[in-house]
Amino acid sequence: MDSCLGVEQDLDKATSKFNALNDHTNKVLEDIITQVEDLRKEISKQPPNSPLTQTQAMVLSDLAANVKQTVFQMSTEHRELHATVSRVGKSIDRHFIVDYASVAPKAESFCSDTNRPIMEQAIAQHLYREGLEEVGDVFVEEAGVGAVERTCAFAALQRCAAALAAGDPAPALHWAQRRSHQLLHSPLPFALHTVHTLKLAREQGVGAAIEYAREQFPAHAARHEKQLAATVCALAWLTPGAGPPPAHYHRLLDQRALGAEAAELFLREACALLRLAPLSPLAGAVMAGARVIPALHDIRAKMTHQHVAAAWADDELPLEVELGAEGGGYHSVFACPILRQQASDANPPMRLLCGHVISRDALHKLAMGVKLKCPYCPMEQSPSEARQIYFS
Ligand SMILES: [Zn+2]
């Protein structure tokens, strides 16, 4: 965080310098344009083909010299700005760790013959999922990616959410209406009707909005009494000539903020309903990576002893990554209650006949020939009756 603040300071300096130069340049240019225009008007007043008066010739040559001088000055000032911009780049280098090779020594494995197509598929899938079909098509064609599903349920949701954020709740409302029986306990329908009501008030007048509200809101009145009252009162500030609204109506009357809020709710509710992950596999991996890399880097710096370094497995992280609410949980993991080890492909979880689950290594250790006594219940069974469990 300190690193971000450090870079932000330098970035702020560069931005304010840039803005100051921009304002100054615009002003200087406007002045010169006015002077040129004035002179042109003055000259055009004279009869055609008549020579310039001595004063006019002097003013003209002065102005030409002035323009030349200003252009020179502007290009010098612009060149000086480069130093400030390059300082931001240096600040990024200074504040952030550039080389993470020690944490991810196998980064080149993304380029191996086996992994490269998987990476490319993940990228294409991400693009299609975000509703960027055209970009995805070009990528698939140029990279020669095979077998990627072009349409996915999430892309349709993404389009509804984007329209909602841009102020058009119609596609999202249509989607929600088709699933109204599944959304009985969701706050989504009410949120969408609210956005639509306020949009109607803006575009067609408060009368149309009230008519819509009368049709749609009664079904939600019991659950959203307070918000409903606030929405209806907010209409008063959308009538022509209404004064500035009180602070607690700002959220409802800020069209963009309300749209963005509703779009976020829409994606959350729709993903939960359709059992879709809110992030694409690629976005999820990038997010998890971004969260874990600083911690990994710290641990790596401290793990210099050979025995400790051996704990750094190739396919397993030495620490747990908290992905937060938006990260979701992607994989179920199983730790053997007997050996206290996380299950792996080589040592998968096995379900015993009695229903208890232990790892295969533990099963082999506990088995006495063809007999096995469950370590949790005394049920005796044959080890061959245990079944491997697969997590999807
Ligand atoms: Zn048992």
From TrEMBL:
Residues 336-377 form the RING-Gid-type domain. GO terms for biological process: proteasome-mediated ubiquitin-dependent protein catabolic process. InterPro entries: CTLH/CRA (IPR024964), Fyv10_fam (IPR045098), LisH (IPR006594), ZF_RING_GID (IPR044063), Znf-RING_euk (IPR027370). Keywords: Cytoplasm, Metal-binding, Zinc, Zinc-finger. A zinc finger (RING-Gid-type) spans 336-377. Coiled coil: none annotated. GO terms for molecular function: ubiquitin protein ligase activity; zinc ion binding. PROSITE patterns: LISH, ZF_RING_GID. It is found in: Cytoplasm. GO terms for cellular component: cytoplasm; GID complex; nucleus. This is RING-Gid-type domain-containing protein. It comes from Parnassius mnemosyne (clouded apollo).
